[in-house]
Amino acid sequence: MMAALDRLADEAAVRVSVQATQGSVPRGPGTHMLVFAVGEAGTIGGGHLEFQALAHARRLLAGELVTTHLRQVLGPSLGQCCGGVVELTMERVDADDVARLRTLLMPPHTPLALFGGGHVGRAIVNTLAPLPFAVRWIDSRDEIFPDDVPVDVDCEHSNPVQAAVADLAPGSRVLIMSFSHAEDLDIVVACLKRLRVQDDLPFVGLIGSATKWATFRHRLEDRGFTAEEIARITCPIGVPGITGKEPEVIAVAVAAQLLQTL
Q: In Å, what is the CA distance from 188 to each residue of 23, 136, 226?
């Protein structure tokens, strides 16, 4: 969407918004897309609904129409059997609207701290790129980060790595997968201490096997953490049922789990 907003500097577009719905529909109110004379950004649900909306928006953009409201019944006539009703509004926008649209179309993302710049960490960062997370990527090795990091990912060198836990944004989701089990444990301990005082990290996930987690549990108990506190750590990570060990497979499973926390 950022590229589409930049494009408004040179050409106008029509913002298509789902204003209201009834029954079963592809997308809910507050969904937006930008329609240019050639090309578009975003989606209001696809199918014939979107096909009709695109045609209407482009006629509006070309000055052939003045109607800025479109009501579509998703029945057999549209080839969509949802059975609901979608009411769309349309607004011509240009460079003067960019600041307003940036707030509307790009709402603040949920903060996420990813500790570890290895293969799985890289796969997760790439998988999360189009999702509603603001990623802070942290490692104790400052040379570890690739050159082609997705836009808006903040790469940070922290040594000791667990020191970064203290100033994570409240509400951060945390993923721990450093190159070292010792570092992993230090980060887990820092997170548990912060949870004990502030209780503002809704999800703390640790990569690892059942054997690794059993060892960590014993070490955390030895450090004085209660069973209830230790239960705040999710290990292994990823939605159940996805057993592949490839970094990209793990990344998809973890991304799905993170979306469940929103």
A: 45, 17, 14
Q: Residue 183 in contact with residue 162, Cβ under 8 Å? A: yes
Q: Which residues are 139's β-sheet partners?
A: 157
Beta-carbon contacts of residue 173 (< 8 Å; ≥ 6 apart): 110, 111, 112, 113, 133, 201, 202, 203, 204, 205, 258, 261
Distance between CA atoms of residues 187 and 32, nearest Å: 39
Q: Is residue 33 a contact partner of residue 49, using CB atoms and an 8 Å limit?
A: no
Confidence of residue 78 (pLDDT cuts 50, 70, 90): low
Q: How far is CA 254 from CA 13, 29, 45, 225, in A?
A: 36, 28, 25, 26
Q: Domain boundaries in the chain?
A: 2-105, 110-260
Chosen CATH of 110-260 out of 3.30.420.40, 3.60.21.10, 3.40.1400.10, 3.40.50.720: 3.40.50.720
Bridge partner list, 99: none
Segment 173-204, tens digit of pLDDT:
999 999 999 999 999 999 999 999 999 999 99
Q: How far apart are CA 183 and CA 168, in angstroms?
A: 17
- pTM for this model (two decimals): 0.79
Encoded amino acid at 96, one letter: D
Return d(Cα 175, Cα 84) in angstroms, integer. 39
